[in-house]
Amino acid sequence: MTAIETVGLTKRFGDLEALADLSLTVPEGELFALLGPNGSGKTTTIEILTGQLEPSAGTASVLGHDPVSDPLAVRRAVGILPEREDPPSFLTPREYLEFVGTVRNLPDVTEQIDEWAERFEFREKLDTLATDLSEGERQRVMLAAAFVHEPDLVFIDEPLVNLDPLMQEQIKGHFREYCERGNTVFLSTHFIEVADELCTQVAIVSDGRLVAECNPQELDDERLLDVFRAEVGATEPATQQVSD
Ligand SMILES: Nc1ncnc2c1ncn2[C@@H]1O[C@H](COP(=O)(O)OP(=O)(O)OP(=O)(O)O)[C@@H](O)[C@H]1O
């Protein structure tokens, strides 16, 4: 089945066309990356697909729901982690995840909280106020919040930016395992290495336009970096780095 389908998705902000005629199909079970340089329309796409922003033209379907006419149905069904979003500074991870559990109608999240804190290694910080957590720790709490209700589809904007290399490996392993169970992960990133190593389907966007689609695991000599350079004209090696 198809997890996400967009047809001719377009978004204009005044004179700026942030997204132009984007048509994408993401089958269920895919570890998908929308890859593109800064300002290429990745966040705009996620915001439209999760019903936070209305497109100027085009249609989208997310797990069979229309994010324009029924944004709540989409947001109930999926997990979302926006770029650089933090838990509220005045709550502990435990309190925040309990809050998320309530919003997600989970009867009792005690076990899930333990499980996710163990998996993303913040168990010893469960009762520390978020304001006193490191950036990476806050990111791990937010990742747990995106997955805690075990949605079929999770959107994550720049998933690995604040994480140390060992935690990056752990999170990548989690994404793979999650998709192997038939779920779908939609990542947005400007780090080629993340898309190349991790993803089963990559769509490259530049200036709001889809310029290439591929499965990096099937690329032989033509590495994803070469495709990216050819289509986007990027020559900066910085795009290969995984962390800031
Ligand atoms: N609300 C807005 N009003 C006006 N312009 C906007 C708005 N939101 C985004 N844009 C513009 O749309 C373009 C695409 O932005 P978007 O945030 O989708 O890019 P991105 O690919 O996610 O970039 P980054 O990798 O830097 O996060 C940019 O030129 C941005 O300045």
Q: How would you classify the quaternary structure?
A: single chain
Arithmetic mean pLDDT: 91
How many strands in all?
9
Distance between the termini: 36 Å
Pfam family, one: ABC_tran
GO molecular function, one term: ATP binding
Domain ABC transporter: 4-232
Protein name: ABC transporter ATP-binding protein
Structure description:
The chain has 244 residues and is α/β, with parallel strands linked by helices. It has a domain at 2-85 and 151-173 and 183-240: 3-Layer(aba) Sandwich (Rossmann fold), CATH 3.40.50.300. The protein is built from eight helices and nine strands. The chain has helices at residues 42-49, 71-77, 93-103, 110-119, 135-147, 165-180, 192-198, 224-232, and strands at residues 2-13, 16-27, 31-35, 57-62, 78-81, 153-157, 184-189, 201-206, 209-214. It has a six-stranded mixed β-sheet with strand order 5-6-7-3-8-9, with helices on both faces. Strands 2-1-4 form a three-stranded antiparallel β-sheet, covered by helices on one side. Strand 1 and strand 2 form a beta hairpin. The radius of gyration is 18 Å and the shape is globular. The model is unreliable at 234-244 (pLDDT under 50). Bound molecules: adenosine-5'-triphosphate. Adenosine-5'-triphosphate (ATP) is lined by residues 13, 16, 18, 36, 38-44, 83, 190.
